[in-house]
């Protein structure tokens, strides 16, 4: 791809280098660029230092066509992004009446007096254009650095997203690439490790592939992105469509969505479309499945409630699990998972119910039932199936997160069958 099709980010902030805060801005920029056929090729994280900012900007300008500088546009003396960019551009800073009016308008809306220090936010490099910030005090700006276009944007993600939508996106639409077009498709999978996925994907993931497949894994969800580039939009889309068909066939047992990265939202959509009532009974996940469900707007129409039954006594008292069943098989077992799911369905009158019971660790495991063992029960219209999963003992919270994702995917599969 040409230099005009790639971008770089300079993320400014001592707090980023100190590990106090993650860089949340670069992923937002990357996602905003893809629909325009552009990709993020480099991210530099630098301190609040004028020369460091200038050096990073100057270096990127030799390699990419778009540069984004995030953070360091506040009113304090350590906010020196504007100074660093001006140094890289070889120009002076000037007071912008347009930028100052934006700062004044923000304070007027908030009913507060403007501190004198905020005048600093109206300084922009000579020749730069002001980018308006509708949800914060820091104006951004756009200017040229050699052959590259530079956007200086505020660091807070909410402000950055607003300016990407209202300032950057319109500019990108007005300056489309010629002869370079991208097509993208997303798949979301569960129950598959990154290494196994890479092995099964084979040469699809080689750097020269077109489409190229990249993947990331978080909390048990594997996100695979197919990205094709071609001389026309139609050719790029045809490349993606062809690979998508093959991808569905190869990974059909693991794909849970091509739209929703969050299995809870995919599940919620199906439940609401079918008006399918659901509940759950949780032990080792301690309410994480129910919490995920309640992230879905409107879910109260089909989700009356749930139970966290951590102790054996609670399993018996609230779900009707027979004490002798617990004594004979133990809480982490298929019979108990089945009884928990049945009990939850009966207690809440739900057509669909899920149970989860396991050993998250770090203690409590044995050779027969090691840390990472989790049993699930899914009850749909009175019929129950159970599933055993064994995850590596990678830490209590990771096991709980993996179990939550698996629970949501199991519910989604059952809801689609209903």
CATH topology of the largest domain: Molybdenum Cofactor Biosythetic Enzyme, Chain A
For the biggest β-sheet, the strand order reads 2-1-3-8-7-6
Terminal Cα span? 47 Å
Number of helices: 14
Query: From the coordinates shown, what is the CATH architecture of the largest domain?
Result: 3-Layer(aba) Sandwich
Low-confidence runs: none
What's the structural domain tally? 3
How is the biggest beta sheet arranged? 6 strands, mixed
User: What is the SS-derived class?
Assistant: alpha/beta
- Global geometry: elongated
Number of strands: 17
List keywords for this structure.
418 residues; alpha/beta; Molybdenum Cofactor Biosythetic Enzyme, Chain A; Alpha-Beta Plaits; Maf protein; 3 domains; six-stranded mixed sheet; five-stranded mixed sheet; 14 helices; 39% helix; elongated
Describe this protein's structure.
The protein has 3 domains: 172 residues, Molybdenum Cofactor Biosythetic Enzyme, Chain A (3-Layer(aba) Sandwich), CATH 3.40.980; 77 residues, Alpha-Beta Plaits; 155 residues, Maf protein (Alpha-Beta Complex). It has 14 helices and 17 strands. It has a 6-stranded mixed β-sheet with strand order 2-1-3-8-7-6, sandwiched between helices. Helix 2 packs parallel to helix 6 and helix 9 packs parallel to helix 14. The relative contact order is 0.08. The mean pLDDT is 95.
């Amino acid at each position: 791809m040409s230099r005009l099709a790639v971008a770089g980010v300079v993320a400014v902030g001592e707090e980023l280098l100190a590990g106090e805060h993650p860089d949340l801005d670069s992923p937002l920029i990357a996602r905003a660029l893809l629909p325009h056929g552009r990709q993020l090729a480099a991210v530099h994280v630098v301190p609040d230092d004028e020369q460091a900012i200038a050096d990073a900007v100057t270096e990127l300008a030799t390699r990419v066509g778009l540069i984004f500088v995030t953070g360091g546009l506040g009113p304090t003396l350590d906010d020196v992004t504007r100074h660093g960019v001006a140094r890289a551009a070889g120009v002076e800073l000037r007071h912008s009446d347009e930028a100052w009016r934006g700062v004044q308008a923000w304070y007027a809306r908030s009913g507060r007096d403007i501190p004198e220090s905020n005048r600093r936010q109206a300084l922009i490099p000579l020749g730069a254009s002001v980018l308006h910030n509708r949800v914060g005090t820091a104006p951004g700006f756009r200017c040229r650095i050699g052959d590259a276009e530079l956007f200086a944007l505020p660091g807070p993600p909410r402000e950055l997203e607003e300016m990407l939508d209202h300032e950057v996106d319109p500019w990108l639409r007005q300056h489309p690439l010629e002869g370079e077009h991208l097509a993208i498709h997303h798949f979301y999978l569960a129950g598959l490790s990154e290494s196994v996925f890479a092995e099964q994907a084979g040469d699809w993931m080689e750097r020269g592939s077109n489409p190229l497949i990249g993947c990331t894994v978080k909390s048990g969800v594997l996100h695979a992105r197919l990205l094709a580039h071609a001389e026309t939009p139609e050719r790029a889309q045809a490349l993606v469509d062809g690979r998508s068909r093959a991808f569905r066939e190869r990974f059909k047992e693991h794909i849970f969505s091509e739209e929703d990265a969050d299995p809870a939202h995919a599940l919620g959509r199906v439940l609401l479309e079918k008006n399918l009532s659901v509940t759950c009974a949780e032990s080792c996940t301690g309410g994480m499945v129910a919490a995920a469900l309640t992230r879905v707007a409107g879910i109260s129409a089909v989700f009356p409630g749930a139970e966290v039954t951590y102790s054996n006594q609670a399993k018996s008292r609230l779900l009707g699990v027979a004490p002798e069943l617990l004594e004979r098989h133990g809480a982490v077992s298929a019979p108990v998972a089945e009884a928990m799911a049945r009990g939850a369905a009966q207690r809440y009158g739900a057509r669909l119910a899920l149970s989860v019971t396991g050993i998250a660790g770090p203690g409590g495991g044995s050779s027969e039932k090691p840390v990472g063992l989790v049993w699930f029960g899914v009850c749909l219209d009175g019929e129950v199936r159970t599933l055993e999963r064994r995850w590596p003992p990678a830490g209590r919270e990771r096991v709980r997160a993996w179990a939550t994702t698996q629970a949501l995917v199991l519910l989604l599969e059952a809801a689609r069958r209903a």
